[in-house]
Each structure stands twice: as C-alpha cells, then as structure tokens.
Design brief:
This protein is α+β, with helices and mostly antiparallel strands. It is built from eight helices and 13 strands. The N terminus is likely disordered.
C-alpha cells in the first residue's frame, strides 16, 4: 500500500484522537484546583483590537476575564503623549495581539469540496476565488475554517473567510504607526467575543512569540499519543493488513466489472446505431427511385411542373392530355399507392391540356 492510501486510511483515526485529546484536556482543566490549573496552564494575556470609526478599542483578555483598556486614535498624529506611552506598554506586555475586523469588511462563504482537496486546500481555495467570490486572488487575504468532513461522501465542508487587501494593508499601516503589530487578524464571535480560528494576516506580517504553555501541552500530547499508539499498534497493523488484502481484491473485481460495463455499453450503442440506420432507410423513400418510377409510368403527353417529396408523401403538379388517366397509372405502380387529386383539374384550352395537382404515398420497403 502506497503512502497516499495509508494516509487516507489513518486520517479519520487521527482526527478522532485529536478530538478525544481536546476533550480530555478540557475536562482535566475543569476538575483541577485553580492554583494547580494556573501553574500547569498559566493564563495567557491577549490584547484585542477593535475598530470604532477612526478609533481603535483595546481590550485585555485573559483566560479568566475580558476588560476594556481604552480607546485610541488610529493615526499617530492624533495620539497624545500619555496615550502613546500606554500603547507602547500594552504592546510590550501582551503575549498576543488579536485584530478583530469589522463584519462589513469580511466576506464569509460556506463551501463543499472533494475530500482529496484537503492535501492542497489553500491552493485549491486560491484557484476557486474568482468563481466563489466577487474578488480575484490578488485583491484579498483569505483563510478558512474546516467545519465538517464526510468520509462517506468524500467531501469537506468549510467556511471561506476573505477581506480586501487594500483595507487590511491600510489598517496594518495605521496600527504599525501607533506601535501595534498584530499576531492575528480575524473576526470575533458575536455571542462570546472570542476570535474565530482564522488568520487573515499575510505571512510576512505575522508576529511570532514563544508560548511556554503551548510547548508544554504539545509535549504532553505527543507523549500521550505515543503511549496510546504503542498500546494499539499490533491490532491496528493486523487490521491494516486485512484491509490491504481486501482492497486489492476489490480493485481487481472493480476493474473487471468496469471493462465489462464498457463493452456492454459499446455493444448496445452499436446495435442502436445499426437499428437507427435501418429504420431511417425504411422510413425515408429514395428520391431517385421515386423519380424513376414516375418517369416510367407517366405517358409522354404528361409533364411535371413541380415535384415535392416530403417523408412518405409525393406531391405532383403538372399538365396532361388526360389528368384522370393518371390515377390508374399510379395505382398500378409497385412503389406508389393511394393517388388522389389535391385540387380540381382545370382545362387549358389553348394547349388542349389539363392542369392537375395530385399526391400519392410511397410504399415502405419491407423490413429485412
């Protein structure tokens, strides 16, 4: 089994482990005493920045509380000396600076994509930008939130989040002038005020700071995962071997079934084409044969001014010394039948002939 197939088999299992680990850490943190929880999971101070007209609202957010600090002008020229000093202290103390973008400056759209797109999801979203949004890729910064994964339907459901580049670049320039360098640009949930798991900042503008608690949690998670994998490695490998053998058999049978289906479709299509040509030939009279038959049965004192062959019906207009004598002549033909006048016969005294307009049906060829 190649690496791509193995990844597809183990990805759902890894997602299950990730969900279990997140639930276990949350439950463990809830039952620990506050002092122990503070030592193991120290509170991380976040500085939230929100826009209000031409001002920026700064709020201090920890694991325990959210508190508004103050409101400051967006431009350095309007800052007072005391405000500039406050902002500098805030930026130095904050472990993380989160920029909450206004809702009217962010476009969100729910998309459903094939499961295979997950391997290069960001590139796929870049290709889809023109079709899914009113903007081109060069006009926006974007990120996504994966909301659902359906292994049965092989689909991903995600929320695409985009914001105009001009707006965000201008805003970042103003924040840089007053001393703020955000680590994340996102949209905050209305009910909780917490940021959503997207970062619309360009990579070159993102700030990195060491996070001891994150590294500790990561190390503990890796250790727990290694122990869990060691406990279940043997039965899992046995199941993988069985799956591999079954997949090989299924692929072989599927390939044979596909070849059989295609051959059956080709045979049916050839049969349909053959029957169509035969039916078309039987249903459509040959023009040359009809003209030859009329030339053979019509007398020399009869000539045709107009001949119209439409489907099985033949219309004849012309002049004859005796128009009434044409009906029995046509009836005697093997390829024409049911002759009848379409309009009354009229005399042409000057030529001593009769003008006629009659029709007949072309007999169908017998099916072979």
């Amino acid at each position: 089994m190649d690496m791509k197939t193995r990844f597809k088999l183990t990805t759902p299992f890894l997602h299950t482990l990730t969900d279990f680990w997140s639930w276990w850490i949350a439950e463990l943190g809830g039952i620990l005493p506050k002092s122990v929880r503070a030592a193991i999971l120290p509170s991380v101070e976040r500085l939230y920045l929100e826009l209000n007209d031409q001002n920026v609202i700064a709020s201090r957010v920890t694991s325990e509380s959210t508190q508004e600090i103050g409101r400051y002008p967006l431009t350095a020229e309007q800052l007072q000396a005391e405000q500039a000093q406050e902002l500098e202290e805030l930026a130095n103390r904050a472990r993380e600076v989160v920029l909450c973008l206004p809702a009217d400056k962010v476009l969100t759209k729910t998309l459903t994509l094939p499961l295979v797109a997950e391997e290069n999801l960001r590139e796929v979203l870049g290709f889809e930008m023109d079709r899914q949004t009113p903007f081109s890729l060069e006009q926006v910064y974007y990120d996504h939130i994966l909301t659902a994964r359906d292994s049965k339907k092989n689909t991903l459901t995600l929320k695409l989040v985009v914001t105009p580049r001009l707006f965000l670049d201008k805003l970042l320039t103003h924040l840089d002038d007053i001393g703020f360098h955000p680590h994340q640009a996102t949209i905050c949930r209305e009910n909780t005020g917490q940021p959503q798991a997207v970062n619309l900042l360009p990579k070159e503008a993102r700030q990195r700071r060491p996070d001891t608690a994150r590294y500790l949690n990561l190390a503990l998670g890796v250790l727990a995962l290694a122990l869990l994998l060691g406990a279940i490695a043997l039965p899992l490998m046995n199941k993988l071997h069985v799956i591999n053998a079954l997949e090989a058999r299924v692929e072989l049978v599927s390939a044979k079934a596909e070849v059989t289906r295609r051959l059956r479709e080709e045979v049916e299509q050839l049969g349909m084409d053959s029957r169509f040509l035969l039916e078309k030939k039987q249903a459509t009279p040959l023009t040359l044969e009809t003209i030859n038959e009329l030339t053979r049965i019509l007398p020399d004192d009869t000539w045709i001014n107009r001949l119209n062959i439409k489907g099985q019906e033949v219309e004849i207009q012309g002049q004859s010394a005796s128009a009434a004598a044409l009906i029995p002549l046509i009836e005697s033909s093997d390829s024409l039948r049911n002759p009848r006048f379409r309009s009354p016969v009229t005399k042409i005294p000057r030529l001593n002939t009769e003008r006629f307009h009659l029709s007949a049906e072309v007999a169908k060829e017998p099916a072979s």
